[in-house]
Specification:
This protein is of the alpha+beta class. The chain has eleven helices and twelve strands. The strands form four sheets. The protein has a five-stranded antiparallel beta sheet, with helices on both faces. It has a three-stranded antiparallel beta sheet with strand order 1-2-5. It is elongated.
Length: 343
C-alpha cells in the first residue's frame, strides 16, 4: 500500500503541483509576485512531504491547493478592456452584404522598427465574386520546426486580404509558447495589408518566410473567408482564450469548427514548420517541381526586401510564385479536394 501511495505522489501529486505553480505564474504583472505565487505551492507541498505524515495530511494539503487552483482557473474569463500591447488594441470587424465584404479596422501599419509602427486603420471593401486564390505563408521565427502561419486571399482585381491569427497580449507581456498554455493570452484575428503583416516579418524581423499557392476552387475559398468573417465578428463581442496547442494560429485558420481533423494534419499543429512538405506530399501544392526546389522558389524574404514599401509589394513577392493546377486525381477520376477540410 505504501508503494502505491508513493507512486501516486510521483505520478499525480508532483505533476499537478507543478501545474499549479505554472498556472498561477503567468497571471501577475510584477515579477516578484509572479515568483512568490508560483513558488508557494511547491514550498508548501514540499515542506508537507518532509515534515507531515503522508496520509492523510500531505494529501489533504495538496488536494486543498488543487481544488482552490482549479476553482480559480475556471473562474477566469477572457476580457476585452485590458491594457493591450501596441498594435493589438483594436479588433477588426467584418460585414458581408451580398457579394460585398466590408472590413473595418483593416490594419495597414508602416514601420521604422518593430517597436515603432506608424499605426493606420482603414476600411476596405472586397467583391467576393472576384475571389480567386489563397496563399499560405510559413514564417519561421524559431528554427525550421516552429512557424507562424497566415493566409492571404487574392482577388482578380489585384487586391489581397491577409489574415493572421495571433496571441493578443497585454502591454506588460511578451510572447512565449509556454505562457500560451495557461490562459495568459487572448485570441485575435488581424485583417490587413500584406505590406504590414507580411513585410513586418520579412523586412523588419528578417524572418525566413515561405509562400505557397494552395490548390483550392473558388467555392471553397469563399466558404473559408465567410467562416473567418463570422468568427471575427464573434470575437469582437465574445473574447476567447488563445492556447499554444488547441487554439493557435494554425488551428484557428484550418481546424476550428470542423467535426474532425484529418490524421495527416494533426502533427502540423505541433510541428507546423513542416506543414509545407506535408501539403506537397499530399498533392495540395504544385507538383511541377521537387519540393526542395519549390521551397527555394517560395522563399520570399529577398524579394520582399527588394520591394521595400512599394505599392506593388504583393505583386513583387509573387514574381516567382509556382502556380498549381486546380484539380488533383482521386481514386475515381479527377476531382477537387480541400486540404483545409480533409475531404
Amino acid at each position: 500500500m505504501t508503494s502505491l501511495i508513493w507512486l501516486f505522489v510521483g505520478f499525480v501529486v508532483v505533476p499537478t503541483t507543478i501545474w499549479i505553480a505554472l498556472a498561477t505564474h503567468y497571471h501577475f504583472r510584477w515579477l516578484w509576485l509572479r515568483w512568490f505565487v508560483s513558488l508557494f505551492p511547491l514550498v508548501v507541498v514540499g515542506t508537507s512531504l518532509a515534515v507531515l505524515p503522508l496520509v492523510p495530511w500531505v494529501l489533504a494539503v495538496w488536494f486543498g491547493l488543487l481544488v482552490i487552483t482549479i476553482a480559480w482557473w475556471f473562474s477566469l474569463r477572457p476580457k476585452s478592456d485590458l491594457d493591450w500591447a501596441m498594435g493589438m488594441e483594436v479588433l477588426p470587424r467584418a460585414e458581408i452584404v451580398g457579394d460585398t465584404l466590408c472590413v473595418r479596422q483593416f490594419r495597414n501599419f508602416s514601420y521604422e522598427a518593430e517597436d515603432k509602427p506608424i499605426t493606420r486603420y482603414e476600411e476596405r471593401t472586397y467583391d467576393l465574386s472576384r475571389l480567386s486564390s489563397l496563399d499560405y505563408f510559413l514564417t519561421h521565427w524559431s528554427g525550421p520546426v516552429m512557424a507562424h502561419t497566415l493566409v492571404s486571399f487574392g482577388f482578380d482585381d489585384g487586391q489581397f486580404l491577409c489574415v493572421s491569427v495571433e496571441a493578443r497580449r497585454q502591454r506588460w507581456q511578451s510572447y512565449s509558447p509556454l505562457w500560451g498554455l495557461f490562459r495568459a493570452y487572448h485570441l485575435m484575428f488581424v485583417l490587413g495589408d500584406e505590406r504590414d503583416i507580411v513585410r513586418l516579418r520579412t523586412n523588419i524581423r528578417r524572418d525566413r518566410v515561405y509562400m505557397y499557392r494552395l490548390r483550392l476552387p473558388p467555392e471553397h475559398l469563399r466558404r473559408l473567408l465567410l467562416d473567418y468573417a463570422s468568427r471575427v465578428e464573434k470575437l469582437a463581442t465574445q473574447p476567447a482564450w488563445y492556447n499554444t496547442v488547441s487554439s493557435n494560429c494554425t488551428t484557428n485558420l484550418f481546424y476550428r469548427g470542423h467535426a474532425s481533423v484529418p490524421w495527416w494534419m494533426k502533427l502540423g499543429i505541433f510541428l507546423n514548420g513542416f506543414s509545407g512538405r506535408t501539403m506537397y506530399r499530399l498533392g495540395y501544392l504544385s507538383d511541377s517541381l521537387p519540393f526542395k526546389e519549390l521551397q527555394a522558389r517560395s522563399d520570399i524574404r529577398e524579394r520582399a526586401l527588394a520591394a521595400g514599401d512599394a505599392a506593388d509589394f504583393s505583386q513583387q513577392i509573387r514574381a516567382q510564385l509556382v502556380m498549381p493546377a486546380l484539380c488533383i486525381s482521386g481514386g475515381h477520376g479527377t476531382r477537387t479536394r480541400n486540404p483545409l477540410r480533409g475531404n
